[in-house]
Amino acid sequence: EKFDIVKKWGINTYKCTKQLLSERFGRGSRTVDLELETQIELLRETKRKYESVLHLARALTAHLYSLVQTQHALGDAFADLSQKSPELQEEFGYNAETQKLLCKNGETLLGAVNFFVSSINTLVNKTMEDTLMTVKQYETARLEYDAYRTDLEELSMGPRDASAVSRLDAAQSQFQSHKDKYEKLRADVAIKLKFLEENKIKVMHKQLLLFHNAISAYFAGNQQQLEQTLKQFNIKLKTPGAEKPSWLEEQ
């Protein structure tokens, strides 16, 4: 049984390699679904662009985290100097309060951006990647389908003695099997691409709105709007002072 499996694998590999080489050198014909392949290429291009956005958003998270940490340290320094510098107590005091407020708003913004990063990461590295795995299976099935189609066509043009007829029947059966597999995977890819596009629009509509509202509120100094944005998207921040990993460490 194991020998038969290895034998079938070897024959299949040989036929597919032969088909692949003939396509690359322009000698073999290739089955093409223009509409589907255009959608697949668009998905790959979209994934590359979203990966770039994800990389930049992670960089933004790192910079914001560093800023918040610096503001926290600066606020502590101002507060300490306020207690030890009577002549400048008021000035150091309100600067300490300002940094404390900025630090709080920065942590709130980090919560929003971290949620944005997490959602884009899921979309790119899970949802899109899952669809591309099915695409790879489809592309392999297409190559096998064309390999066995070519094999059947070559046998059909040969002599029709008893041995040849037997090989032709076997080739016809194998061709039909690979044709069914190819058509099933082609349908699967079309369905997954459709659902992926719908899911992408839904996810990005929410995430882009979140990102815009949070960034706008933060740089406008609107603490109430910033906190309301997180409530709107059901984002919960870690408890202040809790022993948990930082936003950056959770990436």
Short description:
The protein has 5 helices and no strands. The chain is mostly helical and 251 residues long.
Give structural attributes.
251 residues; Substrate Binding Domain Of Dnak, Chain:A, Domain 2; rod-shaped; phosphoprotein; phosphatidylinositol-4-phosphate binding; coiled coil; golgi apparatus
- Number of H/I helices: 5
Rg for CA atoms? 30 Å
Task: Give the end-to-end Cα distance, rounded to a whole number of Å.
Answer: 48 Å
Name given to the CATH architecture: Up-down Bundle
- Tally of structural domains: 1
The share of residues in extended strands comes to under 5%
CATH superfamily: Arfaptin homology (AH) domain/BAR domain
What do you see in this structure?
This protein is mainly α and 251 residues long. It has a single domain, classed as Up-down Bundle (Substrate Binding Domain Of Dnak, Chain:A, Domain 2), CATH 1.20.1270. Helices cover 84% and strands 0% of the residues. The two termini are 48 Å apart. GO terms for molecular function: phosphatidylinositol-4-phosphate binding; protein domain specific binding. This is ARFP2 protein. Keywords: Coiled coil, Golgi apparatus, Membrane, Phosphoprotein. It is found in: Golgi apparatus membrane; Golgi apparatus, trans-Golgi network.
Give a topology summary.
Elements: H1 2-24, H2 34-84, H3 89-156, H4 162-219, H5 223-232
